Amino acid sequence: MANYLASIFGTEQDKVNCSFYYKIGACRHGDRCSRKHVKPSYSQTILLPNLYQNPQYDPKNKMNPQQMQMHFDAFYEDIWCELCQYGLVEELVVCDNNNDHLIGNVYVRFKYEEDAQKACDALNSRWYAGRPIYCELSPVTDFREACCRLNSGEGCVRGGFCNFIHRKQPSPDLERDLEMCTRKWLKERGRDPRSMSRSPTPP
After folding, report:
1. Which one-letter DSSP state was computed for residue 101?
2. Which has the higher per-residue pLDDT, 31 or 51?
């Protein structure tokens, strides 16, 4: 029985623990969910809920698509550089969703659990863009499972209201520059840049 319960933990067959919270670190039912949201006591991944203020969802927004991409790139670079102070960042994921439990969420996966904990402890006393930062450890370890598989290609019919993560992408040039900076940072500290294992951008 114990082996069976362990094998279904966090899956849709698990009638006790919420599979959405386990996969995505957020659930549309929140505290009202009928299943348990088991918060991890340690993790490589942190969640910063509602950190990115997406101008796309501001009714007063007058930016064109190019300006909105520049706005996002500036945010992405700022957050990446800030978080690198706590340890090696392997993956940074920003939600492009518009539903309450995912809007503006930022996930950061560090190489080491202790760096994620250090960042979580420090960021909970910080502010960003005039708003307090909230940070928690997240159970998400594989963003391929957390991200919507229909968000590329033919597209997802649920759009921003999908319950899986719609990942907002930085411009390719910025992503390449940040990766080069990280490799340089590792080399200067005597670490092997090949130890980087950032997950590839979904096709």
Report:
1. T
2. 51
